[in-house]
Design a protein that fits this description.
The protein is 47% helix and 18% strand. The chain is an alpha/beta fold. Helix 7 links the parallel strand 6 and strand 7.
Amino acid sequence: MTITRRAAALVLSTLPFALLRAARADDYPSRPIRVIIPFGAGGPTDVFTRALAEELRKALGQPLVSENRPGAGTVIGTEVASKAAPDGYTLLMVSATQTVNETLIPDKAYKLMTDFVPVAQLFHSELVMVVPPSLGVKSLKDFIALAKAKPGTLNYGSSGIGSNYHMAGELLKNLTGIDIVHVPYRGSTGARTDILAGNVQMMFDSVPTMAPFIEAGKVIALGTSGTKRSVALPDVPTLVEAGVPGYEATIWIGMMAPKGTPQPIVDRLNAEIDKIISRPDIRDSWVKQDAYPDPMTPAQFGDHIQAEVAKWAKLIKANNIKAR
């Protein structure tokens, strides 16, 4: 009889908490939502997050307040989000950079798939591989031949160790067997300035950023990094088409929430985001900016994140890449 009373007491003690969680999900959101962007203002993640936030404000009836928390290659902002209450009022923007950091920075205070739950993916976008005209190559095959003829002498710039641009270059090295030297910069601006000046021999950069320079003949595009040709650069082959089978390295952006966020809230956010990015006006506008909407369920997005973590872990270990 005592056991029965204790069991009943336990059920009663947990019931209010369960009801409270359900109530929170039912009336969500009832106040502004904070969205942590672990990048600086003005970059792709910041720009597209703010555009999405305005559409979500209309759908949810509450403002989404974007908060830029850059630093340590997304680690600072991501750690802040990992410590937030799991109530749906703090969300985190994630990208391929965070999946790289899972291996590159193993001693950080969080793990993506342990301390967060996937909400939705927004889009993916290609990179473009460019060289200065002064290098004297016109195709990817020419570049590979030059690199093999002069191992360890050509270099490529990136926005920093572990960045999308860095990983794209390392993947090219692995799949082609070339020996080129990585030159990390503090952000993409310095690398971009030097590729335009001919001070570095190659760079991967975002398509929208580089397209005007390609059209002006200031750099030569050797290939794009996706599985299909870029809408913005239809005459530039993919790296697979140009002669590197299996090459794929895309930028992507999505949203996660602290672990323990009620599933009904996650599902609501996912449904609203998928509706927004599937709208013809949004899709057409984003595609023109080389951002291809990717509606996914939370589970599908989780699988994508885990696949990215595994992909970059293999590359980092094979190339013995260190954070410092």
